[in-house]
Write a structure and sequence with these properties.
150 residues; mainly beta; five-stranded antiparallel beta sheet; three-stranded antiparallel beta sheet; 8 strands; 0% helix
């Protein structure tokens, strides 16, 4: 299982008023450079407590897109290599021959399996066979759901 370091996090920085949850609808990883051993498994989790230091901007090396109709960047910031607490859940695996070349990877559709409250983070990590300087890129798409309490 992965350790307490997430390779990629999406931090819900929404305030509690109005509270908004993030619901990941797509998660993926692919080999960007180097070589990896055969296959990879993508793990995900929602942190058990708010991220220790809330993100105030996307981290270096993070590229973000948004739908044309969305005028703001949304209620989340993304970063790499953050310490997290929680239980990792395997999201999917792909089988590749040893020494997989860049481009090998997978995309999974969590279908509402995770809900990220304000202050918490959706985290991803990859485990793969030993290789040479393997570096992975991550992809996450989410929807933002306003929470209303009666």
């Amino acid at each position: 299982m992965p350790t307490t370091t997430a390779a990629f996090v999406v931090n819900n920085v929404a305030s509690d008023n109005p509270a908004t949850a993030l619901v990941p609808i797509l998660a993926g990883a692919y080999l960007a450079s180097g070589t990896a051993g055969g296959g990879l498994t993508l793990f995900g989790q929602v942190t058990q407590k708010p991220l220790g230091t809330q993100l105030t901007a996307d981290g270096t090396g993070v590229a973000r897109g948004r739908p044309p109709q969305q005028s703001t960047a949304g209620l989340a910031f993304c970063d790499l290599s953050k310490t997290v607490t929680g239980a990792w859940c395997p999201l999917g695996s792909c089988e590749r021959t040893a020494n997989a070349t860049p481009g090998a990877g997978l995309v999974v559709w969590p279908h509402g399996m995770f809900t990220v409250p304000p202050g918490y983070a959706f985290s991803l990590h990859v485990l793969a066979g030993a290789g040479t300087s393997a570096a992975y890129c991550f992809a996450v798409a989410w929807i933002e759901v306003p929470l209303t309490f009666a």
